[in-house]
Amino acid sequence: MNDNPGSASLPAGNGRQGGSPSPNNDRMNRKLKYLLAGLALTPWPLMAQVNQTPLAPRTTVDLTVTDDEPVYYEKPKSGRVQRINRDIMKATFIPKGQWMAGGTVSYSEHDEGNLNFLVLKDVEGRGYTFSVSPYVGYFFSNNCAAGVRFTYNRTYLDMKNFEVNLGEDFNISLDNLYWLEHKYEVGGFLRTYMPIGSGNIFGLFNEVRLTYGYSAGKNSTGSGTEYDGTFEKSHNLQIGFAPGLTAFITDWSAVEVSVGVMGYNFKWTDQVSNQIETGKRRTSSGNFKINLFSINIGMTFYL
Q1: pTM
Q2: 245, 257 in Cβ contact below 8 A?
Q3: DSSP 128
Q4: What pLDDT, on the 0 to 100 scale, is given for residue 200?
Q5: Which of 18-27, 60-69, 165-174 has the lowest mean pLDDT?
Q6: Who contacts 271 (Cβ-Cβ below 8 Å, separation ≥6)?
Q7: Which of 39, 71, 174, 196 is the residue whose CA sits 20 to 30 A from 23?
């Protein structure tokens, strides 16, 4: 019992004075010490410089086209591949404002006398095919030309005797077989060139053609009372592509080789047999392969 009533003693551990500190206060004190130590060690000029540094602007791509250097498009981050300018048409093979003129000529002739070949027996006849095709064009832009082409073709065949022998029970014999046809064509074309290598001697071209043709011909077999003749007229429309190769042999002339690889052909034919009977035929076809018979070799002059 305490004899002094004015003083009272506190139990140990119940108050903040004279007792041990709590764990929460101890952790807070350590964090505060670390923060103050970090601020003390950081150079104040460096912090000011970092605070004054502006943010970097958004990256942009300049797509301005100039005449001195090509423009290439990078692959965007989205993953879509955009078109790349390969400068194929930048090299000038034939300049703007030039004229071109040329053409192709072909002629073939055959003459048979008592010819035997496989199932063909006693073939006697003669014939020829003549074709001429001039054209003219103008380069409205570098390596690009537009022009017109005219074609005349004449086919003649006169077979005195023609037999097909497939055995004793099947023979075909024709005599006085006659065929004559005149064909006229007019068309427009658009041609683009691309040089091969750094020189201007060899180049590739591709030609797009739109052609209208008209033909008239007659064919007949037999003679006298067994004569049978037919007269026919035809109209045809062609849309096609003809790639080729050109090689300059002088500064103003070149040799060209082209081949028709694909296109569409529409043909309408009306005929009259023995001046009494009439008939007609409508055909359409698409060609998507190389035809060796459509290879053309000609000369072109650049003026």
Answers
A1: 0.62
A2: yes
A3: E
A4: 82
A5: 60-69
A6: 230, 231, 232, 233, 278, 279, 280, 281
A7: 39
Contact 299/133 with Cβ under 8 angstroms?
Answer: no
Taking residue 168's Cβ as centre, other Cβ atoms within 10 Å add up to 6
Higher pLDDT, 220 or 5: 220
Using the structure block, give the residue that is written with the tokens 């023979």. Answer: 171
Helix (H, G, I), strand (E, B) or coil at 198: coil
* The pLDDT value given to residue 226: 73
- Mean pLDDT (the chain) is 76
Angle at 28 between CA 23 and CA 29, to 5 degrees: 95
CA quadruple 282, 231, 111, 295: dihedral positive or negative? negative
Instruction: Give, in order, the Cα–Cα distances in Å from 121 to each of 95, 127, 204, 236.
Output: 58, 18, 46, 35
Q: Hey, what CATH topology would domain 99-302 get? A: Porin (2.40.160)
The structure tokens 């703007």 sit at 96
d(CA 187, CA 198) in angstroms, rounded, equals: 33
Residue 19 structure tokens: 């007792």
Alpha carbon distance 185, 190 (integer Å): 17
- Distance set, CA 10 to CA 18, 21, 40, 158, 190 (Å): 10, 17, 42, 145, 113
Tens digit of each residue's pLDDT (9 = 90 or more) over 2-36:
444 444 444 444 444 445 555 666 667 776 766 66
Q: Distance of CA 15 to CAs 8, 9, 11, 20, Å?
A: 14, 11, 8, 9
Sign of CA dihedral 199, 201, 202, 203: positive
Q: Counting runs of H as helices and runs of E as strands, what totals does the chain give?
A: 2, 10
For the chain, the first-to-last Cα distance in angstroms comes to 136
| DSSP conformational letter for 85 | -
Residue 177, token pair as written in the block: 């077989």
Length of the chain measured in residues: 303
